[in-house]
Structures are given as structure tokens and as C-alpha cells.
Fold each of these.
Amino acid sequence: MNARLRWVAGGLAAVLVAAAVIVWRQAPSVAQQAAPEHPLDAAPVTAPPERTQLPEPTREQKRLARYDKDKDGVVSRDEYLASRRKAFAKLDRDGDGRLSFEEYAVKTSDRFAQADSSRDGRLSAAEFATTARKPTPRKPDCAAKPDEEA
């Protein structure tokens, strides 16, 4: 009978342990049982929404935006020709609405006169070399970080 009593006591202990585990898992924690002191404390805490970044506009979208002055999503003929009108107005020195050859070629004429250091109406190889356009530096693809001072 001693052995039978041990088996019954062991089985009863196992049932009690299993019941305790079930009760413990279903019981709310102490933090959940405490009443909030402030109404805002009762609101569930959620992570802030992630910021969605808009995709970078393409090269053509940027170009369209430069021409589309009234921002209606299309480029009218007047918008398309506006840059040419400005360039024409700069060249039309006398403002008569016509370009003479001298007005049209003023930059080239000035460049020739500046390069012709001998003032003989001709450009030597050395003088001609001074008329070459300077290459414009390309912008780097990525922004360089400024050096940090120690």
C-alpha cells in the first residue's frame, strides 16, 4: 500500500503543477492590473508610423517641372519657347525685335577681339587656343560630407 500511495501522491502533484501552470499563464500581469493614473496612460502605446519617402523625381520629371511654369502638368508652346524668347531679348540690343548679324554674333565677335592680341584681324595658334571654352565642373553624384574639426 505504501507504493500505491506514492503513485497517487505523485499523480496528484503532477495534476496540481499542471493546473498551476495553466492558471499562471492565463492570469493578467501586475502591470496590466494596475489602473492608469492619467487618462492618456490608458491609450495603447503604438510605434509611430513610418515616414514614407517619395521616390526621387526622374530627370525628365525635373525637366518638365522647369518648363511647366503654371504647374498644370503640361508644357504649352509659350512655356516651351520662353527660354528662347529670353535669349533672343538679350541678343536684341536695340530692342527692335530683329537680330542683325552683329547682334547675333556679338559674343563670338567679342571673343575674337579679345583673343586677337596682335589686333591684326587674324588668330595665331596661340591666340586661337585662348578661345577654347573652359569645361564646366560636374557636380558629384553624392553630397560630400564636410570635414569635422577636432
Amino acid sequence: MRLFTAVTLGTTIEARVAAELKRLRQLANHARFVRVEGIHLTLVFLGEVEASRLPAIREALASVGPRHAPFTLSVGGGGTFGTPTHPRVLWADVHGETDALKTLQADTAEQLQPLGFESEYRDYAPHLTLARSHTSSGDPALLQCVKALSGTDLGQGRVDRLVLFESRGPEYHRVVEVPLTRTA
């Protein structure tokens, strides 16, 4: 099983991202754009995991939810990763209660670390991946997408659960959902 932990952003953001992706595809027709139903913010990538390890992972994640209250994030604007002239990844910026998101990510990573899962983030920088270049050399057309994203508001979403996803090719399946239940 190929697993990762993440949070989702809700239907408002999904709908606005879907509309925006239609517009962006016209600007970078060679890029691989994400599937709207797969939109998420990755917290910890676990990689290939044997199914027999799932109970321990479930138990570790169950301890996270009661320590965190739901919070709100917003998405808009964007940027790229890669070289300035040939970026490899297009992303939308995440705003709002990002400190709560960073704390959730750190706690999730801490709970999974004793099971042998190391976080790939030293300094977690939340972003919503929208597209990737088809080639490792990057895609200059993604720069036009960044200009198109400038000043965009893709909405707000309430984060109220931590999700363990299984990646099966381009599709993501929910394996475990842990509600964030701490009250203020």
C-alpha cells in the first residue's frame, strides 16, 4: 500500500480549483494537472507500507485528533518549484490558520516517527499542488499559470479531520479518518 497523511479542503475550494484548472490547462497544455477529487495538503508521506502495519499506524494517528481543534484555511495566488525559467511544479498558496496546520503536521510526523516514518519536511511550507511538468527539465508554460493565478481567491475550507490516504495510481482512497476534536 502506498500511503500518506493529509488534510482536505472542502467542496468550495474543490469547485473553485476545478474552474481554475480549466483555465490553466489552456495556458500549459503539456503539464499534468491534478485531479480535483484528489486535492489535499500532504502532511507526511509514508510510502510503500505492508498492510500488516496498518493497525499501528491507525493507533498512532488516533492519538493526534483529540489534541487539535478544527481550523480554517484559504487558497489563492500561487508559484512554482524548480528553476525560474523552467519550473517543474505549479502550486497555489495556502493562507489562514497555517500555524494550526503546521502544528498538526508536526504532531502527525512525531507520532509516526517511532514507527519508522520520517517526515520529508524540515520546515513544512503548505501549498496546494496544481500541476507538474511532463518532463524533468520543466515547463516554461507554468510561468503563465503563475501570472494567471495572481490575485485569485480559490476560497476557504474548514479542516476538521486528518486522513490517511492510499494512493492507487492517480486515485486516492481514504483508509483512516481521524476527526480533530479539541475544543477551544
